[in-house]
Structure formats: C-alpha cells, structure tokens
Design a protein that fits this description.
The protein is built from eleven helices and 16 strands. The protein is of the alpha+beta class. The chain has a domain at 20-75 and 271-376. Mean pLDDT is 82; it is low at 7-20 and 98-144.
C-alpha cells in the first residue's frame, strides 16, 4: 500500500472537512413524518403524508448533525419584512431623496397653486408608463419629480443587524410596487443596488407622500412569479403572470397591482384555510431546513436554507409563495412519491456539479463562502 505523505494527508483532511456538512445525500433527507426519523426509508408508502391540504403537499427536508454543525456559525439574520416594520432599512427609487432631505418636501401653497400642472404631469407619467410597457423595458429611466428606474432600487441597512432579502419578496410604495429579483444579504450600514421588477403596471407616481420610498411589505410572491423573475427576467412576462393571479382571484385594480390580492376576501379566505394547516406544521423540529412542494402531478419547487433558524424565521412568509401557486394554478395532489425522491436526488447527488445543476432551473445564494439559500423550480 502506498503511504500518504504528510502533505497528501493534510489535503485529505482539508477536503474531508470542507465537504463535510454540505448539501449532500449523506446530510439531507426527506423527513419520515410519523416519528421524525432520519432513517432511510425502504418504501415511499412508509411516509405519513399528513402535510397535505387541498392542492398542496409538503415534503420536509431534515439535516443531520454534521450539516448543522458546519452552518451553526453562519450568523443570524433579520428578515426584510421585520426590517421594514422596524424601520431598519431604507428602500427607495433611484434618485429618490431620503426622509431627511429638504428637497423632498412639498410646499403646500405651491402644491395648491400648481394642481393643474401636477394633474397634467400625472397624466404624462401615465402615458409614459403605457409607452414603456409596450417597449418591454428593462432599464429605462423615467424623469419627473422623484427619479426612478424600474429594474433597480436602492437599499440601505440603517441598523446593526444583518438583513436577508429573498428573491420574490414584494415591497409596496415607491412609484410602483416591486418584486425583488435576487437574494442578497446586507451587512450593517451597507447600501446596495437592488434588482427588481414591477408588479404594478399602471402607476408611475408616488402615493401617500412616500417620497419614493418603499415602506410596505406584501409577502413572498407566488412560485411562478418567482420563477419568471429569477429565470426569465422578463418584465412583460412578470405582468402577464401577475394578471393571471389577480384576475383568477377577483383582485383586479385600477393599477393592476399584485398586492391587491390582500383586498380579495375570496382569496384571503382560501389563504386562511391553507395557513391554518401549514403555518405551524414544523414547529419544534430543529432539524428541518427546507421542503419540496407539490401540487397536482407537478413539483412546484424546493427551498433549502443553511440553518433551521433561517428556515423557521422565513417559513411563514415563504409558504405563501407555494399556497398562492396552489390556489391559482394547482390541482389535487396525485404525484408519486418516487418522483419527489428523484427530484431531490438530482439536486444532491453530485456536489461538483450542484451549482451548475441548480442554476439551470433555480437560484443559489452564498454567504461567507457557504450556501445560504437554494431555490429550485
């Protein structure tokens, strides 16, 4: 037998440690729901698929001790929803003034005197917006008052917390409600450009004196919208997908905003039914770091997080993404469990090709050289 040199042995230890605890079969499995067992299951029939309601079924993914140990020092994160509510983040249109800027103040006397001019400006902005829609804009800037670019916002972390922003989250305000296009982490004090798409096509003006800022949070958008935003990156397709949801759920509005779904009683009643079943489904299990969701005969997608805490904190927001999809486009679950196992196998089987495989139909975000969040469709 050929003996290892000290250098070879060192390399062996190094690669063993760095691969230890990663997103692999050895570390992540579909949970055996009945007893939260981590054992291998010989037959899919041994799963208790009780996490099913109407058009949605969830298959939780559990991590072993090695995976959890490898990610325990990755850090703690404040979610975007909480950061907005606690006023720890400023998200604004490009060119928008901060709240402290005198330039953003409107003199009430001048406003009264110039009402006809303002009305004409708003009409011009509406016409400009319609023209932009037909051109399928990506980075066209619209002038007049507070600046803005449809596909780029400015985000600044004004707190001492580290903020996690997830692709698919919808923020309200500015000149149009927007959906965030990419995962990103903001360190304390950090300011970044934030990729986004419009989910409100018939408005290009500030409202409620928001001075170009986004002060409201809707939720994580439906899974099909998340996919269009991250995979197709096509504004026209985003609008058409938004229209499918609002029309199907009787939530159409004058500005065609996706966030008007919160005003549809019929839709909200359906949401409540799903949330009653799912929102506390995994409480108390500190091994779960994500799930695969299915509806009808298709796999809607999968979300995996580096830690149970980040998953648990994000869960009640992200579950809306899958529920929204199930309500609008789903069907009674009839997919075979073997298809779900094969889907997970495709993600986990080869770490050397994992990133390439995920990016074919999903997104992967790294933080501190570790995979913080994986989404697949």
């Amino acid at each position: 037998m050929k003996l290892k040199t000290p250098f070879t042995a060192l390399l062996f230890v190094f690669f063993s440690i760095t691969s230890f605890g990663q997103y692999l079969h050895e570390n992540l499995k579909i949970m055996r729901l009945k007893d939260y067992s981590y054992e291998n299951i010989e037959s899919p029939e041994k799963y208790d698929i009780s996490y099913t309601y109407k058009n949605l079924r969830l298959f939780p993914i559990v991590a072993n001790k090695e995976f959890k140990t490898q990610h325990e020092n990755i850090g703690n994160f404040l979610l975007l929803k909480d950061a907005i509510q606690q006023k720890k983040i400023i998200i604004k249109e490009t060119g928008a003034d901060t709240p402290q800027s005198n330039n953003a103040q409107i003199n009430s006397e001048n406003q009264t005197q110039n009402e006809p001019i303002l009305e004409q400006r708003q009409e011009n902005q509406t016409n400009s917006q319609r023209q932009i829609q037909t051109q399928n804009i990506s980075q066209n800037q619209i002038s007049g008052g507070i600046g803005g670019t449809v596909n780029k916002l400015i985000a600044k972390n004004t707190s001492s917390d580290t903020i996690f922003i997830m692709a698919g989250e919808v923020v309200k305000g500015g000149k149009q409600d927007r959906v965030i296009a990419k995962d990103i982490v903001l360190s304390p004090g950090q300011e970044v450009d934030l990729s986004a798409f419009c989910v409100e096509k018939n408005r290009w003006s500030t409202k409620e004196n928001n001075k170009g800022q986004f002060t409201g949070y809707y939720n994580v958008s439906s899974m099909d919208i998340r996919k269009v935003v991250t995979e197709d990156a096509n504004q026209s397709k985003v609008w058409s997908t938004v229209d499918e949801h609002t029309k199907s759920n009787k939530a159409s509005s004058s500005t065609s905003t996706y966030t008007n779904l919160e005003n549809s009683k019929e839709y909200q009643d359906k949401i409540k039914g799903y949330m009653k079943k799912f929102e506390n489904a995994f409480e108390g299990n500190e091994n779960i770091i994500g799930f695969i969701a299915v509806s009808g005969s298709e796999i809607i997608g999968c979300d995996l997080f580096a830690t149970n805490k980040l998953f648990a904190d994000s869960y009640k927001n992200i579950i809306h993404s899958y529920v929204g999809h199930a309500i609008t486009k789903g069907a009674s679950v009839n997919i075979k469990n073997e298809e779900v196992f094969a889907y997970l196998d495709k993600i986990l089987k080869d770490e050397s090709k994992q990133e390439e495989e995920i990016e074919k139909n999903g997104t992967l975000y790294k933080w501190k050289s570790k995979k913080l969040h994986i989404t697949t469709y």
